[in-house]
Write a structure and sequence with these properties.
Helix content is 74%, strand content 0%. The protein is mostly helical and 196 residues long. It has one domain.
Amino acid sequence: MPTLFASIVAEARLLWQLAPRLRFLLLAAGLAGLVPGDPGRVAAMLFLLALAPVLAESGARERLLGTLPLVRTLPGVPATGFVSWKAAAALLLATALAAPTLLAFARVSPLRALAFACGLTFTALAAVSLGALSGGGRLFLGAATALWYAAVNGALDYAGVFAPQPGLVVPAAFALGAVGALVIATLADQARGARA
């Protein structure tokens, strides 16, 4: 019988397999984050941009395909906390792909590494939460692209990589906001399940 962790890993692998066009860009950007200085920061920025479409529909995929009742009955998939399970898989994929960049940042600036981890957390949790709440990936993809564009232009450094000197307040606030969205999406999912 599959365990919860095994089912999270399987879901993360499925997310990876569903991104054939972006997987090499994600790998390249994740590894390019090892380059010190500004090139590593730019690679992290590109990583976040490429990660958004990979995760955009992750919270709504089963509902979009009509397989939600079937997936909920699979071994290892939690009966409650389905949205949190999806978020854990998205965060696992994002963290695994960004691990070289996170390690490179941690070696040079632990503050930047922590801020980048907050940005990854925000991206993964917001993708799943907004997908689960809206029933698709467009809301998250539009919001993530607009936020990325704003960050590149000097506003709202939500991942600690867009400014030369990283800060932690804004990335932590975005990560906490995404946790709040995850709680709301989980409650909405449970309410939908109770009505079904």
